[in-house]
Design brief:
The protein is α+β, with helices and mostly antiparallel strands. It contains 14 helices and 5 strands.
């Protein structure tokens, strides 16, 4: 049985394997492991062969999940043929059935493709054993070995399933902690961070979560617990002050608090709708249902929602880019991260602005935020090696031959010009002498 603490062990859900064949007397179980009651073996042989009969004797290509409600089990069945010259058509119909408890229904459906691969390999080996007429003992030994190996495969799947269940429980605890944190009261920045983090939790793919994500969840939970203690201390002081207020002052305070709580709910509702539009992996988990105790002002809450919507809008537009536009955006952001040049950074931001239609100055401010920078690195799959600068190739020295030739020409020109000047002077002196 599968309990709430985990998803059991292989022997709890995987009950065995049965090889059946259609003989002259009808469907018959031929080999199995471990041993099963006679009624179970006969039921599996009969039910699985009836499926082939329903298909007009043709062998189905795909595996089938067959419910066995009378014995609280289900069977994953692979259909195949055994060559037999004495049979009609030269072959006998056969089935290989993996037996599971009904509790394992979700595991079987999730991993049906993986199980089918193993079933196909087993049927090929059984076919070879039958062709060599090695007898049922050889098949019994083979099924025993297969059962042992298949239990190991199931154990790995169960470990992964247990991990996911533990993560789900941890995430639920963190979200409950966030709700308590919001109800106690928190600063504008803390509320924004809590809302962002809850949105990230709702979109986690638990099947492929890594150790870094788990560490992040645990660290954030520890931070909230610490802040919760501080806020509770502040509230204790406030309760002491409240005792000193008269009834009229208390009523006035309660009215103001209820107005703030009402406006907070409406803002959170608007943000939640926006998050739901952005999320394509499932329903976003809503929290902050109530807001009790000391709250921030309506203006602060409005600022939080506006900031968060802008951030989510920016990230969403980047995420929605595809094809050449996405690659161009990726290269622009890499260029922005790699360079120290203000002009290169400015061109990269302008390129992003042209792609996602958000003002350049707004993008410039957003990418200064470390969290938004990290999110863009993740979206564009930017790795450390992408940010390494390529080595600059040394420029080749120009040959000085041309320069020398040019110099010679200049020297010749200067010589000619000097002789021309001397000739003019001599002409002038001759004219003066004549005069």
């Amino acid at each position: 049985m599968v309990d709430e603490a985990g998803v059991g062990s292989p022997v709890d859900i995987f009950k065995g394997v049965i090889y059946s064949r259609f003989e002259k007397i009808g469907p018959k179980p031929m080999a199995w492991y471990p041993n099963q009651p006679v009624n179970v073996k006969q039921l599996v042989a009969l039910k699985t062969m009836n499926i082939m009969a329903g298909d007009k004797g043709e062998v189905p290509e795909l595996v089938s999940i067959v419910p066995l409600t009378t014995i609280d089990m289900l069977a994953l069945v692979k259909f195949f043929e055994i060559q037999d010259s004495t049979a009609r058509g030269g072959a006998r119909n056969a089935t290989l059935s993996l037996l599971f408890t009904e509790d394992a229904d979700s595991i079987v459906h999730k991993n049906v493709d993986l199980f089918e691969e193993h079933l196909t390999e087993v049927t090929k080996i059984i076919t070879k054993i039958e062709a060599k007429n090695k007898g049922s003992d050889a098949i019994d030994t083979f099924l025993e070995n297969f059962h042992s190996e298949f239990c190991k495969i199931i154990q790995k799947l169960l470990d992964a399933e247990n991990k996911i269940q533990q993560l789900q429980k941890t995430i639920q605890e963190v979200q409950a902690l966030i709700t308590e944190f919001a109800e106690l009261g928190a600063s504008r920045q803390e509320l924004a961070e809590a809302l962002k983090f809850s949105f990230e939790l709702s979109n986690l793919d638990l099947a492929s979560i890594d150790s870094q994500d788990i560490r992040k969840i645990k660290n954030y939970a520890a931070q909230i617990k610490e802040k919760k203690k501080i806020i509770m201390g502040q509230q204790k002081k406030l309760r002491t002050l409240r005792k000193q207020l008269d009834d009229a002052a208390l009523e006035q305070l309660e009215e103001k608090l209820s107005l703030i709580a009402s406006s907070f709910d409406s803002y959170i509702s608007a943000i939640s709708e926006r998050i739901a539009e952005l999320s394509d992996r499932g329903t976003t988990m809503l929290f902050f249902r109530t807001y009790k105790g000391e709250a921030n002002t309506e203006q602060q809450i409005s600022a939080i929602s506006s900031l968060l919507k802008n951030d989510l809008n920016f990230i969403s537009k980047c995420n929605n880019l595809s094809g050449d536009d996405r690659e161009r955006a990726r290269k622009s952001f890499i260029s922005y991260l790699k360079t120290r040049s203000a002009s290169v950074k400015s061109r990269a931001i302008q390129d992003l602005s042209n792609l996602i239609f958000i003002p350049k100055d707004e993008i410039k401010e957003k990418v200064k935020d470390k969290k938004i920078e990290d999110e863009l690195r993740r979206l564009f799959n930017i790795k450390p090696e992408d940010l390494k600068k390529k080595p600059v190739k040394a420029k080749k020295k120009k040959k000085k031959k041309k320069f020398k030739k040019a110099k010679k020409k200049k020297v010749k020109k200067t010589k000619k010009s000097k002789t021309a000047k001397k000739a003019k002077k001599s002409k002038k002196t001759k004219k003066k002498k004549k005069i």
